[in-house]
Amino acid sequence: MKRLHVHVAVHDLKQSIRFYSALFAAEPAVKKDDYAKWMLDDPRVNFAISTRSTKAGLDHLGIQAENGAELEDIGSRLAQADVATTAQKGASCCYAKSDKYWTIDPQGIAWESFHTLESAPMYGGETRQVTKAACCGPA
To answer: Which three-class secondary structure state does DSSP give residue 90?
Structure first.
């Protein structure tokens, strides 16, 4: 079963963790110095916040697939929608290694469809220079 993903850039991580923990009645499943993530079942959402962007607010939306077959199905549907997509295989971002498809919707909002393969020790990949971009979408 797929899960909606929302990533919000924040200015004050500690204050934002307090707010979202109260809102969701749950503590983050992942908590780092620059990032926090809640894996909620009601509603079924992967909600992440980070201080990596210079501009606070919605960074991107996405769909988290349970497995590679679900991800490839999403990729096929995006291809049928006649939109540009960028595939990333084994990308390290947000303390996780994932296969991904990125696209931009008609309103200009970035969408990340992904299947998480494993956790990663760094926000971005060890071979990638981490920038102030909130997430690891294509340039």
So the answer is: strand
The answer to whether residue 129 scores a pLDDT higher than 80 is no
**Of all helices (H) and strands (E), which one includes residue 58?**
strand 57-64
Q: Are 86 and 77 in contact (CB under 8 A)?
A: no
Residue in 111, 108, 117, 115 with CA at minimum distance from that of residue 137: 111
Residue 69: pLDDT over 80: yes
> How far is Cα 115 from Cα 99, in angstroms, rounded to an integer?
5
Please give the pLDDT value at position 138. 65
Tokens 């963790």 — which residue?
Answer: 17
* Cα–Cα–Cα angle for 88, 116, 66, rounded to 5 degrees: 115
Residue 116, strand partner residues: 98
Predicted local distance difference test score (pLDDT) of residue 123: 66
